[in-house]
Amino acid sequence: MNIYLIRHGKLNWEDNIKKCIGITDTKLSNEGIKMIEGLVSFLKDKNISKIYTSDLNRCEKSAQILSSSLKVPYYTQRELREINMGIWENKSFDYIKKHYPLEYDERGKNIETFKVENGESFYECYNRSVNIFKKLQKENENIAIICHSGVIKCLLCYLKNIPLNNILNIKLNYGDIVCISYKN
Question: What is the domain count for the chain?
Answer without folding.
Answer: 1
